[in-house]
Design the sequence.
């Protein structure tokens, strides 16, 4: 209320036709005249004044139409021009050649955003420069009020991304959408430069093929939730996810797809964050991990073993297991029986035989297809193709690794609560074993033990 005193002085001085120099900006009598206590002194309260007001040039915009002022009804003044034309008396018009105009600008609605006299913010903006007030006069603000709001959108700094007047980019953006994002997300920009594998949409499309830019009901501003979001592009995996006979729990808990994949880029194939086997062993390399199925700790199965099963030398678990789900035992990529006894028939061992010679099981006699033979007698056939008691490969072989050669299962295959030890000894031309199934027996490819 101190102002009253100052204003009172103003009025007195004006009534004596004295030219007063305002302690702030005002130098001219007209301005002073207009800003008397009873009239437009509120114009002085702006922190920033429009230059013509500083110069006291009210008439640059207001033209007197009748002597009398103030009028009871109507106005003694009219604007010297309407809409944008008024501003263009002094400012250059926006050149449509330098970008598509914001509709609000094209329609000459300068005053929707600017106060012609002054502002308590920057740029002569209305509402003290609060863009959330200004922009939401015309645009729907509700999408910005979702659960997860992008930092700069929450802060209302629309101008970090948009030009208010015009732009050559879509949506009045300051830069093309991707460089716009990478300007702030610099760690991602460096990551993309160094990456060997880049998720295709980051090459070809804008970040907003996956992200909302203002706000989203989903974490990380994503356009969707969990696997369903990934399936919007990877449709072929949705069926597997929903219908696989053997489901991989890894897809249904915690980070879901993100348990194994980086979203943007990586140094390993298939956007894996590290070597494939290391990704699997994050979970399958712990003792206390497998609760419901009591699965083995695969890390201990592999550590310090002399022989790794072929694909494992390259850390390639997915050569044998489909990480996304399969219709076969243990997520294997093809048929492999679960039971100890499973006589060979076409298809029974399709899994092993997708990489190994099928003929090693097909003929009672062979001289080339397997080393596991006594003379010509095919002992794979004897053991596996026996229609009554054909034994599965696990009776003699390890799936992942072994200390002895030929992936022989030295620990022994589980048989009920017991483990059948194999005790295999190989020779140049054959071998012998004394498993829990029979006495030590030998085979020899050159000099058959069992003579015909
Ligand atoms: C750059 C142009 C410009 C200048 C300079 C200008 N005005 Fe205005 N003024 C306007 C416009 C445009 C409007 C209409 C605003 C609207 O319709 O929202 C206006 C409206 C007004 C109004 C009526 C509505 C209101 O905001 O109270 C008054 C009173 C007024 N001006 C006084 C002044 C005075 C006093 C000065 C000099 C100190 C001045 N104007 C200088 C452009 C200007
Ligand atoms: C009588 C001349 C004149 C008219 C008419 C005029 N301006 Fe200005 N305006 C100026 C001058 C002079 C400046 C200060 C120099 C500059 O920034 O170009 C200025 C500055 C501005 C600024 C920059 C403020 C800042 O410092 O960030 C904005 C915004 C602006 N004017 C908007 C408008 C709008 C909107 C209109 C129409 C309602 C308008 N002007 C009409 C003369 C005018
Ligand atoms: C949608 C809102 C909006 C509309 C409509 C709008 N402006 Fe602006 N204008 C802004 C914003 C925001 C700024 C930047 C303020 C800042 O720098 O903080 C700005 C800045 C300006 C500036 C300062 C120099 C510059 O270009 O940054 C001038 C001059 C200006 N506007 C004139 C106009 C004129 C003339 C019109 C009408 C033809 C107009 N504006 C319409 C929002 C708008
Ligand atoms: C006076 C009303 C008005 C105001 C205030 C306004 N806009 Fe607009 N804006 C429009 C209209 C009309 C359109 C065109 C129709 C649409 O896309 O909604 C538009 C379109 C846009 C577009 C889309 C342009 C495109 O080519 O797709 C963006 C981005 C935008 N406005 C941003 C802003 C921002 C940021 C502000 C605040 C600084 C703002 N607007 C304030 C009226 C306004
Ligand atoms: C981080 C950058 C960024 C910020 C900050 C930002 N926007 Fe946007 N905005 C975009 C991008 C990118 C698009 C176009 C792509 C899209 O809509 O997905 C867009 C589109 C728009 C559109 C047109 C399409 C639509 O969604 O209706 C409007 C209007 C808009 N923004 C207004 C605003 C307003 C108002 C603010 C401030 C409260 C703001 N934006 C802040 C990046 C941003
Ligand atoms: C002006 C700087 C700026 C620009 C431009 C920008 N961002 Fe951001 N972004 C931020 C900030 C700040 C955060 C919050 C960081 C934090 O909380 O650690 C953020 C967070 C994010 C997040 C993470 C949200 C979360 O909860 O994990 C995503 C996703 C994102 N931005 C995407 C984008 C996209 C897409 C664009 C381009 C349309 C973009 N950003 C442009 C500043 C920016
Ligand atoms: C193919 C979809 C996709 C595209 C395209 C994409 N993102 Fe993401 N982004 C994601 C997913 C999924 C997450 C969540 C990852 C998680 O769960 O940790 C994410 C997370 C983020 C985060 C927060 C976590 C972090 O890594 O800091 C930021 C920031 C981000 N993205 C920015 C961007 C930017 C910038 C672009 C464009 C250069 C972009 N994204 C393009 C899918 C995508
Ligand atoms: C347990 C780890 C793991 C999880 C969880 C996982 N993936 Fe994979 N994904 C992999 C591995 C390993 C590969 C590479 C080997 C291959 O192609 O099978 C791969 C490959 C891919 C490929 C490229 C090759 C192909 O099969 O089309 C896509 C796309 C893919 N995953 C999407 C997804 C989606 C979507 C999810 C979530 C529903 C998901 N992944 C969950 C491990 C995983
Ligand atoms: C906007 C579409 C889109 C979305 C959403 C999307 N992807 Fe992709 N993704 C692609 C395209 C396109 C490719 C390259 C072609 C292909 O392999 O199908 C690809 C490839 C991949 C690859 C193989 C990468 C390689 O180079 O080996 C993986 C893994 C992958 N996506 C995982 C995911 C995961 C996980 C999600 C969910 C977080 C996801 N994608 C969401 C479009 C998308
Ligand atoms: C995020 C943790 C996690 C990762 C990473 C992971 N798994 Fe799993 N996996 C599980 C869980 C949990 C189960 C179910 C265990 C249970 O029910 O006891 C499982 C089960 C399995 C099974 C047995 C399936 C069955 O039902 O018989 C196989 C085989 C398997 N995973 C292979 C892999 C392979 C190969 C990889 C790497 C490509 C991998 N896992 C990565 C968590 C994971
Ligand atoms: C050459 C094929 C092959 C490769 C490569 C392979 N596996 Fe296996 N895996 C199998 C077979 C076959 C079984 C079933 C063994 C059985 O029950 O007789 C199995 C079983 C499993 C099981 C269930 C173990 C249990 O307790 O029954 C897990 C977990 C597993 N594998 C994980 C992995 C991981 C992790 C990798 C990579 C480090 C991997 N596998 C690589 C063939 C393979
Ligand atoms: C994805 C392909 C693949 C599958 C499936 C596969 N293996 Fe192998 N296996 C290999 C490769 C590669 C080698 C090493 C190459 C070699 O020495 O012949 C190998 C080696 C072996 C060896 C040792 C041979 C030697 O001379 O040292 C045995 C035994 C074996 N596999 C048994 C099996 C059994 C049993 C199955 C089914 C449970 C199976 N494999 C499934 C690829 C596979
Ligand atoms: C009764 C034990 C036994 C069973 C059951 C068995 N194998 Fe073998 N397998 C052996 C022995 C012993 C050798 C090593 C022969 C040698 O080098 O003297 C061998 C060798 C192999 C080899 C190396 C190439 C060859 O034939 O010499 C492959 C591949 C193989 N087995 C695959 C399988 C597959 C696939 C199954 C299940 C369909 C299976 N084995 C079942 C004992 C068995």
Sequence:
């Amino acid at each position: 209320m101190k102002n009253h005193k100052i204003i009172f002085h103003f009025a007195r001085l004006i009534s004596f036709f004295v030219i007063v120099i305002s302690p702030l900006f005002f130098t001219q009598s007209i301005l002073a005249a207009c800003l008397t206590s009873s009239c437009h002194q509120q114009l002085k309260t702006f922190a920033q004044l429009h230059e013509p007001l500083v110069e006291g040039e009210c008439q640059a915009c207001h033209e007197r139409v009748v002597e009398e002022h103030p009028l009871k009804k109507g106005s003694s003044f009219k604007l010297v021009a309407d809409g944008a034309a008024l501003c263009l008396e002094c400012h250059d018009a926006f050149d449509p050649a330098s970008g598509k105009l914001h509709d609000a600008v094209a329609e000459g609605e300068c005053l929707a955003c600017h106060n012609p006299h002054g502002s308590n913010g920057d740029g002569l903006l209305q509402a003290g420069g609060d863009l959330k007030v200004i922009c939401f006069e015309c645009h729907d603000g509700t999408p910005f009020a979702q659960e997860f709001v992008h930092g700069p959108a929450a802060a209302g700094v629309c101008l970090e991304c948009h030009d208010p007047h015009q732009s050559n980019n879509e949506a009045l953006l300051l830069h093309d959408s991707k460089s716009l994002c990478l300007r702030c997300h610099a760690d991602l920009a460096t990551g993309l430069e160094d990456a060997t594998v880049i998720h295709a949409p980051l090459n070809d499309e804008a970040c907003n093929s996956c992200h909302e830019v203002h706000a989203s009901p989903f974490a990380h501003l994503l356009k969707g939730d969990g696997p369903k979001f990934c399936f919007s592009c990877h449709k072929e995996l949705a069926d597997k996810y929903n219908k696989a006979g053997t489901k991989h729990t890894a897809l249904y808990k915690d980070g879901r797809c993100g348990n194994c994949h980086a979203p943007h880029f990586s140094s390993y194939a298939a956007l894996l964050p590290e070597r494939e086997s290391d990704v699997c062993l994050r979970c399958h390399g712990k003792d206390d991990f497998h609760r419901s199925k009591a699965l083995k700790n695969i890390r201990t199965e592999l550590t310090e073993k002399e022989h790794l099963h072929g694909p494992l030398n390259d850390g390639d678990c997915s050569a044998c297991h489909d990480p996304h789900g399969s219709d076969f035992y243990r997520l294997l990529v093809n048929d492999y029986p679960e039971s100890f006894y499973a006589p060979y028939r076409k298809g029974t061992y399709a899994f092993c035989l997708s990489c190994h010679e099928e003929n090693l099981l097909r003929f009672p006699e062979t001289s080339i297809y397997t080393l596991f033979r006594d003379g010509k007698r095919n002992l794979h056939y004897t053991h596996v193709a026996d229609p009554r008691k054909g034994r599965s490969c696990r009776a003699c072989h390890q799936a992942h690794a072994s200390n002895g050669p030929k992936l022989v299962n030295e620990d022994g295959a589980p048989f009920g609560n017991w483990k059948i030890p194999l005790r295999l000894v190989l020779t140049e031309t054959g071998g012998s074993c004394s498993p829990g199934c029979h006495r030590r027996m030998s085979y020899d490819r050159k000099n058959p033990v069992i003579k015909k």
Remarks:
- The mean pLDDT is 90.
- Residues 242 and 320 are 21 Å apart (CA to CA).
- The radius of gyration is 41 Å.
